[in-house]
Amino acid sequence: MREYEYDIVDHNGRIVKGRSEAGSVNELVRRLTAEGGTVVEVRERHEAARTGSRFRRRLRRVALVLAFHELATLLESGVSLNDAVQAQSRGSHHPALTDAFRSIFQALLRGQSFQEALQTGGLPLPEYVYHLVEAGETSGRLAQSLRQAVEQMRYDQRVAEEMRSALIYPSILVVSGIVAVLLVFVFVVPQFSNLLDERNELPLLAEAVLRTGVWCNENGLLLAGTLAVIAGAGAALWRRPGVRRRIRDVLAALPLLGGWFSETDTAKWASVMSAMLSSRVDLMDALGLASRGVRFSSRKATLKQVSVDVRGGAALSEALEKRGALAPVGCNLVRVGEQSGRLAEMLRALATLYEESSTRRMKRVLALIEPVAVLLIGGVLGVIMIGIILAITSVNDVAF
Predict the structure, then answer these.
(1) What is the dihedral sign for C-alpha 22, 27, 33, 34?
(2) Burial class (CB in 10 A: 0-12, 13-18, 19+), 201
(3) Which of 2, 237, 276, 312 satisfies CB 3.0 to 4.6 Å to 281 for a cystine?
(4) SS3 content of the chain, % helix, strand, coil (to 5)
(5) CA 243-246-247 angle, 5° bins
């Protein structure tokens, strides 16, 4: 027997708090309902006592995906939805997940649908998860739809991790190069400040390098503060969706990066479309939802035009080909899927095709970024060394 705390609405419409023992939450709910009360919330007493004392750490995407993977597995094993959610509220190790699943469970007890209960949980779920769950509840295939949602979240997580991993080395290279240049200006160049004697006529490059080094050495705190302010302002701006969107649009217009980003976006769009259609979501709803997940403005506008064409009666393959949203190979795959009745499978194959192509483009872009960064950093350091050498040789020429 476990001890529970509960809130119910009595015959007079007042919320009454109480405490009782029962073998399970469902047993307690049945007992309270039989007594004429409307159950608002039920919670285990020891869980309620320790909720506020847990250390709040950041909820990572991998923990979120794992929790919903476990939930989908329970449902596929024949466990009822209420019991599966209750098990997650007890078994989740992250306090945010525990609280969210407890809130979802209480919403289910109040008679809400799983899709409505998920929205009350406050978890950072992609929008397509709610649509897949709603489609699963409507069709009676909730376990399969939830599995589709988990697979799509895993796909998004894998793509994000691949991009982060790929950018780690170039980022370290660029940052270390900038630090090296600053150290040279702050500590090395000022050692030759005596060459800035008014009697010495130095070349323009030599004088610019030496005076820059002297200024950096004398204003080290100001320089560090300025860099910190710039970094903080950049981080604050990056948190704004509008700024991120504009930066992405600028990067997408570049010759090399544009193709890479476009194929990555197309792969995600096709993957979401496949998951939606596999869960029997209406084609127009799937198009609208998949288009909202696209990150680049120009591509999002193109896909919106595709949705308008399909709504007007055109086939999806025809609309994609007309708007130039896919390469000819991609349009043929969609056309074959429409003709064979296997559109979801063909879109999954299309997602795999574009994902592999974007990975190859990413490797080519990164292979180019590294030598370019080395050349730029080496060029700056070379200019500094040339400036110092010119200053030394000029002074020696004057001396002789």
Answers:
(1) negative
(2) exposed
(3) 276
(4) 80, 5, 15
(5) 85
What are the contacts of 379-385 at 24+ separation with CB within 8 A? 380/177, 380/181, 381/180, 381/181, 381/184, 383/205, 383/209, 384/181, 384/184, 384/185, 384/189, 384/209
Average of per-residue pLDDT values in the chain: 82
* SS3 call for 113: coil
Output the six-digit token pair for 210.
Answer: 């030496």
Query: Which residues are registered as beta bridge partners of 43?
Result: 5
Q: How confident is the model at residue 194 (pLDDT cuts 50, 70, 90)?
A: confident
Unique residue bearing structure tokens 């047993």: 27
H or E stretch covering 7: strand 2-9
Q: Are 303 and 269 in contact (CB under 8 A)?
A: yes
Do residues 192 and 388 make contact, with C-beta atoms less than 8 angstroms apart? yes
Q: Which amino acid is at 69?
A: H
Q: Are 192 and 167 contacting, i.e. CB atoms less than 8 angstroms apart?
A: no
Neighbouring CB atoms inside 10 A of 351's CB total 22
Rounded Cα gap, residues 82 and 345, in angstroms: 32
Domains and CATH numbers, the chain: 2-53 (no CATH), 61-154 (1.20.81.30), 174-400 (1.20.81.30)
By the 8 A CB rule, do 210 and 387 touch? yes
User: Are residues 333 and 298 in contact, defined by beta-carbon separation less than 8 angstroms?
Assistant: no
| H-state helical runs in 92-141 | 95-109, 114-121, 127-139
In whole angstroms, what is the distance from residue 375 CA to residue 371 CA? 6
The alpha carbon of residue 314 and the mean position of all alpha carbons in its chain are separated, in whole angstroms, by 33
CA separation for the pair 327, 342 (Å, rounded): 20
Separation of alpha carbons 317 and 326, rounded Å? 9
Report the chain's C-alpha Rg in angstroms: 30
b/e map of 120-141 (b: 16 or more CB within 10 Å)? Answer: ebebebbebbbbbbbbbbeeeb
Q: How far apart are CA 267 and CA 110, in angstroms?
A: 39
How far, in Å, CA of 84 to CA of 90, rounded?
10
pTM, rounded to two decimals: 0.67
Summarised one tens digit per residue, pLDDT across range 144-179 is 888 988 988 888 888 888 878 877 887 888 888 888
Among 382, 387, 381, smallest CA distance to 193 is for 387
Q: Decide: helix, strand or coil at residue 356.
A: helix
Q: Which amino acid, 67?
A: A
How buried is residue 96: exposed, middle or buried, by Cβ count under 10 Å (0-12/13-18/19+)? buried
d(CA 383, CA 351): 47
